[in-house]
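request received
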Amino acid sequence: MSGEASTDVADIKFGMLHLTPRSLRALRVIPTIMVGLIVAFAVLWILFLADRSWTVKTSAGAAIEEPGEFLVTLLDGLTFAGLLFVVASGFTLIFGLMRTVNMAHGAMFLLAAYVGIQLQQTMVGKSRNIESAEVSMFAWVVPLLVGATVVAVLGVVMQQLFLRWNQGQDLRQAIITIAVSVVLADQMLLQFGGLAKKMVWPGSVVHFFEILGQRYAFSRIFMLGIAIVVGIALWLWLNKTRMGMVIRAGVDDEEMVRALGINVAVVFGITFFVGSFLAGMGGAMGASFAGAAPGTDGQWLLNSLIVVIIGGLGSIKGAVAGSVLFGMVTAFSPAYLPSAYTFYSIIFTLGTLAIVLAVRPNGLFGRAE
Amino acid sequence: MISLSARNVAVALTCVALILLPAFGSDFFVDFVATRTLMLGLAASTMVFLSAYGGMVSLAQWLIFGVAGFAVGNVVAESGRGLNLGWGPWTGVFIALVAATLLALLLGILSARSTGIYFLMLTLTYAVVGFFFFGQVTTFSGFGGITGIDPPGFFDDRPKRLYYAALVLSMLAYVGFRAIARTPFGLALQGVRDDPVRMSSLGFNVQLHRTLAFTLAGFVAGLAGVLNIWWNGQIDPTSISIGPTLDLLIIAVIGGISHLEGAWLGAFVFIGANIYLRDIPFLGSIEGLLEERLLAEERFNTVIGLLLLLIMLASPDGLAGIIARIEHGIRLAFRRSNPEGDGSSLRTNGQ
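response:
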């Protein structure tokens, strides 16, 4: 380890550029200032500058002139954030306690969606062209719960068979779950085919309401409502019950919990059940919201990853923050980009990630390991 | 410098066999098995390099590989989707390598502060965002992809010259990566892998080392991407979606993510399984459920997923790790029967 690499202690020299520790520290402020400027510009743009009649031609007008369009975009973002939260909270719950990154989370989402769709078709008695008027609330909730339970059991089986005995080897566990997801995805393609399928919202939530001159689908609000109920239930479970206390203690110091005579293996199993159940619930909701097809699994794994990377791995608070931020970016960037460039909105997702990581490398609510 | 260990001898013999391969192998084998193995192995070797020496399991290597391909496509192709610049193929190579290296530098800067599983997730996110980028941004591609990309005229005698190009680049990458591990930079990188806090307090810039290693790996992945686009003649976003991205990880893991030669070994098993699985006499003769469920061509993913699962459960350092362990076992047995054997035979083939 001798030679060039160790001569310049803490100083970095790149030709003319010479950075001392002090100037390096000063450089750290730059990301924060940059982020501030970017956010300020985005707010200014949405509030005043975006304009359909002007040369840039965004698809939604400036917020002060078109409050209705702004509100609709906001609701789009919030309702999508609700779905994101349901899925990502399961992912982050499992990681928080067990340090297991469940790469099969997306596959579980899709499997629950398919099971839900199949069961709904059986309950309604039609395999295609189901009208939402034919679907009672019962014929929506039962498939959702059954689908979620199926993948929850599958998750526990996976955990017990493959993950329990190599606890702590996070990379090995991640690759094992990747293997499971590859097999699952392939078998689902065989079983359910390659065409997109859709779960049907119950008739009682499919109607529109008027808000500031814009029509808005109630089903999206219904989805947000479920997400809020899930969030509150999770909060109560983790903060007000004995099991929740054990889980939170396990997140902080698993060894200590074990030493206190608590059977951590059971707690791990239950957490995996709940985490997978949430993926499954999200799957059934997502199948009603946007349909299910091969590839949906990868997309929702990505969504979960983005949410937890933004919010911080293992933190439920972070899952809320990450969902809202990611949901807002996905809703606002296509609406307020000049319409000729709407397809660039995907870059904003990457941009959001980059910005958050530049300021907080472990995510908004993440803790350094 | 170069020791005459069993590992080096095996690698050298394999290289000689590969150089002679076009003389006795069929064109199909050279083109569809060997060339692809070398290309995918080259791409996977960048992942192994980052993992073995830098402790970073990067899923962005396939994205960088694909970006090089898209860059060649945009520069070279004269009609269809993309920019259609219609410039010469070697200009395309230059631009592709610059694009791949710059992208790797950017992603490296963005992720150098993350480690372990966090790094894996972050790079997977980049990979999938890249897929959606090329799918949605029709300026560069769109979901249909770019077709009709011709390699330089030099490679017209297919498959031989393209095969040798892949072979030479693979050998250079293998030797180069192993040589880099012995330079001050490489040693510091391994120090960063093992104990970043200590390295940082010794005055090494941890993030700089990680970023530079990532950039170097990106350059090599770009080379593999250029070869691939010449071999394929076309590229579309689906080929850099999450499935192929994970396939590269599977290749590296099956081969052994802590052994450089494992990259090519894994690629060979992966491609061999893809092409020859149904031709294995014993498996092919099993009728009914297994035949239909598992071994139909489109069920390849199930087989490879199960193989991955098996390897991860049995030996986390893959086939190369299994081979190393067998070799170690034989040496131990040999040593026990022959007590005068020198102590160096106890050394496993750690880096």
